[in-house]
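Re: the multi-chain job from yesterday

Posting the exact lines I submitted so nobody has to dig through the queue logs.
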Amino acid sequence: MLEKRDVLEQQTSLGQKKLIVSHAPFYHSGRRVTERSYHIMLAALPALLLGLYHYGMPAFGVVCLSISTAIIWELIFNLLTRRTITVGDGNAALLGLVFAMLVPATLPWWAVISGTFITIVIGKHIFGGIGSNAFHPVALAIAMMMVSWGDLFDFDAALLNYDLEFATMYPLAAAKYFGAESVDTFSLTGLLMGKQLGGIGSTFGLGLLIGGIYLMLRAYIRWEISLTFLAGIYLAAFLFNLIDPVRFAPPAFHLLTGYTLIGAFFLATEDSSSPVNFVPMLIYGAAGGIMTVLIRNIGAWVDGVILAILVINLIGPLLDKIRPKALGKVE
Amino acid sequence: MIKKAFLGLSTPQIKYEMLPVHLPETEKVPTPKNITLFHQKNDTDGIPSTLGIGDPVKTGEKLSLYPDQRYYVISPVTGKIASLSPYTGDFGKNYIAITITPDGNEIIDDTFGKQIQSPTLELVSNYLAGAPGNPPLSLLADSNSSIKTIVIRGLDPDPMVATSQYIAQSRLKDLKKGIQILKDVTHVEDIVLISAGESIQGYGHIGARVKSVKAIYPAALPHMVMKDVLGQVVPAGKTSEDLGACFFTAEAVISIGNAFETGQIPTTKTLTLIQKDGTPHIVETPIGTPIGDILEAFGETVNEYDRIVLGGPMTGSTIYALGHPVQPDTDSIIVVDRDKAAYVSDYPCINCGECVRICPAKIQVHMLVRFLEASQYEEAADLYDLYSCIECGLCSYVCVSKIPIFQYIRLAKYELERAKTPEAADA
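And the result, structure tokens for all chains:
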């Protein structure tokens, strides 16, 4: 250290100040990846807090375990592969948080740890880390767990022991197995205020809407994707409902149940796995919404959001081929 | 400093600096102890023989180290040559740095003054190519020149810089004279003066079509002017000169006008100085003044690891020594504190698409940068429109991963150009 300072002092005394030479531009908008992660987490808080209020300490435990193990998996993988330590960018914490918001409060500890392992290691780092994942890591993890341990995601069974002040019935399962009439027990206001069973942070419609609007206004997520996703769901559900109102639930019900809102604002919009051009974003979102309703209404699964998002993630790069012509492009 | 707005639905806009109606006074920097001029040379040129250390020079004297070439510099002072040394600039360009020590007298060289009665293109390009504003006369002097339009910039291409705007608004008489001379010697009839927003009034019978562009960066960059004002899209990989348009700064035209008005070659450079705290100044100083002397005159202290930017925050370049002189095209000096400067990182692209949405050339920057990072320049040019880039730097400005995208693009173009030269030689 001393030597370096001596050299610097010598140079200074000779009038040779060391200036930094760098390439233009010399200013920056000030937006960073870390800031994005933290703001998305902030936007998730309202929905999460209501979940914690409903499900209490077990939910709190799941959230803490999920976030911390996500960070630890990231750190372990960074160390194993001898790459830069990236836990500081907040992305692992964000993925851990989103994972916890999607699962039931009673998810066993080993399932949480396995889930964050799939999220961080298989969903993100195997593909090459942040920015390289083809699928939303959390959507991939939830899908793999739904296939492997389907019982864990049966919300009716998982939350059986809770005594809540609203109908303890998973709305989408009710709609699927008992027809549209059974959803009359759910008032839209109730659904909006989070009076429904579901993942820890995915039931409070109003909270998710507030978070989503905040993220869209500040351009941390792209409004084109979220809004077309919701529009796609509404339109498809509306058509189904029009054809057979006895079998298929009304569109507003689909908008406020299951993973719809969390999917629209927190899953479909993930940077790496979504397209960036205007028209592709519209198609991507709408396709996700329509796919969701197709799976819900005529598919084998109760909720289609996770699988629909994996499907649109898959077609994302292809959609991004629809791009504007570059300035002065010579064919 | 320019920051992104709190609400981000619309893309961030960087506004051009607009001078007030009552223009500020210029501040003059006294003649320094030493003047350094960069005389361009070819790689193959040896040691110059026409000039030596100790030779006297006069104010306005044309110094030509290699008489068989078109390169020359004009001495802004009277004095003696103190040193001649080689200097390598950006992209490996070679120069001889001529340092002159002024002796306090001022003897005007009148070689040019005697010939001003009959202005010709030859006279102009023989004496005024190094005048303040650096008029691109070699483009016009070329016998196969196809220039049909001369565009005069009354607005600086970079934000924060107000030099051209100041000059175009404050020296109308010289501007008019310069336009007249340009028309006479080049026979180019179509002359367009670019100004911003509402400042279009006041130009009256200037002798040029006055056109205004949006006061938002990068509207004053050549490619954007070509597209928005002249209605011609420059094909990828071509320049505006290929389409017959040539860009002059307002200062270059005024230098020409002033030279024929007074009979002396102007050597005083006007520039915008922006201090660390953001205070702007319009400064007048002889060409060749060391940047350090100018900063000293304004009481600006430069610390270790600060950056000194010449030519604007978006497209300019940094210098590595305070002794670097003001050159004919140095339109601005911006001192950036080390804590405020933008650093780059090696963080990967997260595919957020900010760059794609802000790119004025509609390039798929997020894909382009992946090829550039892997040094796959040919593929970048073939698949993702490398040559459509108009070099505005906005992609780097908004990049959340702070990838030096603009630098990658320039490097790629440079490397492709270098690879092309030996291929052409083999053929």
